[in-house]
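So, could you explain the following?
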Amino acid sequence: MAKSPDDVKSRPEVTILLASYGRLEYLRQAVDSALRQTYANYRVLIVDDGSDDEVVEWLHQLESRHPGIKVVYQDHQGVAVARATGVEQASTELICILDSDDMLRADALEVLTEALRQQPDSRIAFCNIRELRANGSENL
């Protein structure tokens, strides 16, 4: 269901922040999950932490196809520095950190922003994880 412009304006904008270093197969899944969000007012910021040429080429293509995605490139300095770079680059009130080997449920931003709306004194919201193993089993 499409969101009306008034609905988007009434919701705070969220940046989904991914720090990436290689592992293209997982990064694709993480980005796909970010792009499937039902929450309408968000953008995706990827900080590439010195990945190889294959990942960089994919990120260039991704950024050119999706105007809501911005990619920042830096030399490899580790995930903590990449996340800090992303926090500095984000221009939104809210940031959702997504590891490049994780996926978000389609309603993740809806649930997290609603939790913050219901608790206006809170400065952080978090969620549980569900581990999906390669053999198809799950760990809650």
